[in-house]
Predict the 3D structure of the following.
Amino acid sequence: MKEGKEIPSEILKIIKKYPNKRASLIPILHIFQEKFGFINSEMEKYIAGILDIPPSSVREVTRFYTMFKKERLGKYHITICSSISCHLLGSKRIADYIKEKLGISPGEVTKDGKFSLEEVSCLGYCDISPAIMVNDEIYGNLTLEKVEKILKKLSEV
Amino acid sequence: MSDFPKIITQNFDVENAWDINVYIERGGYRALQKALSMKPEEIVEEVKKACLRGRGGAGFPAGVKWGFIPKDVEPRYLCVNADEGEPGTFKDRNILEKDPHRLIEGIVITCYAVRVHKAFIYIRGEWGKIAKKLEKAIMEAEQKGFVGKNILGTGFSLEIVVHRGAGAYICGEETALMESIEGKRGLPRIKPPFPATKGVFGFPTIINNVETLSNIPSIVLNGGEWFANIGVPGDGGTRLFAVSGHVEKPGVYELPVGTKLKDIIFTWAGGVKDGKSLKAVFPGGISAPILTSEELDVSADYSSLQKIGSMLGSGAIVVMDENTLMIEVLDRVISFFHHESCGQCTPCREGTSILERKIKKAMKGESSLEDIDFIEKIANSMVGRCLCPLGDACGMQVVTIIKKFRNEIEESFKKREKI
């Protein structure tokens, strides 16, 4: 991505919602994260240019919020809730199973780029614990059998 | 068993209640029409009379909060706290998914009452899908003239912006939330100045939780007194209790403020899963100091739980059965706060790091009994020494778990020592 004078309309639309430009930083970062699967320093500089702020002000934000990634996530990013309610209902077994099946640990991506894994704080789905999220999709009341099916289905797509 | 009104959940079982037409058919946006015929101050008065205390965790009376906004400063903002991240809490998500227009109607009335023309809904980042649905609901409300310019021909205008977070629990703290809206790291601010005088973008700001605001339409329709009479003195209305963990029927239960904790767990949520006995409960999310099975004959309202050294918090009840290992609970508590500490205040940043190292060592069986005293000492040193309540919550919880389950934790430390 090159630093150009044209600001994409999608970004302009966001900037207009806020009393000042900087406030649109997090929504803009979401767009980049969703589009590219990661945010690198080139993108940080580009965004900083649009918002008239130093690149360091963008960097401190991308490093603070866990949803912005330095490196590309898998096509299917699996987040496993490891907080109390899911833990009580066996999230550790679910996590161990997924790790073993995919052969990766949290923070890693499978060699084919298909899956990445992350253990996260409460996802807010304690009524269907244990729960995981795959990209935007929530899966709850998990058993090992259900997880096996989910992974199988995703592997085929 | 249920001769009390359903306020927040009245549409939860109605099919497609998230559709604006269904909401309107069920009496939706009538409260807005009534509100717009009232004077703004009259609405604030009704909410004060209702004794509606904030549903996010701190429990500050909403009407009183609104009253703090200075009359002569423009612009002013409303921030809706939908950054539901407290482990065990999922009530606001249910409102957003099942009845978003109740929230939107509450927002418009509130903004009219405190003369706000721009509101931000700060929704947690993981809920991208819910955020999109919410934006769609706002657009529908705009098309019907309930949001936007010149609402229902009254000349009052309001813009609502949905702002997604990006995975930081701390942004549920009101001043961190404002920093985050401004495009910065979510580092809590020093108070004072309070948000009511100097909030987001430096202007007067009201911050209210999703459930709090969703009560406003019913208060306007039925009056503050009606609402106050449902709960306990000084703490009106119903609460959404989110029950999870080892219970037969996890879910959200709307019950009057002051319902006994044991009734919520045993009568409503079906009791402990698989007929086991109850060992412990977090009565208000992971931040609310743990209660033992002997302490459940307590009224679930802010002051009653405070009196026994805990808190109602966000109303998230996490139930643990007899087989739950307290060393593991301690590990989950510490690990959560360590991960979510923003790192601004030394006692919290270093405290949670030290606790995390110690508990991980203990989990591996590499600790001695003296480590329990050390963990207690570190946890105690965090309380009352940080800008926001995160350090306090971690410290208090760790100290309370060790105090109430010391024998078991000592046994665990010893047993794991042998492994």
Remarks:
- Chain B has a mean pLDDT of 96.
- Chain B has three domains: 20-230, 238-321, 326-418.
- The CA atoms of residues 376 and 403 of chain B lie 9 Å apart.
- Residues 346-363 of chain B form the longest helix (18 residues).
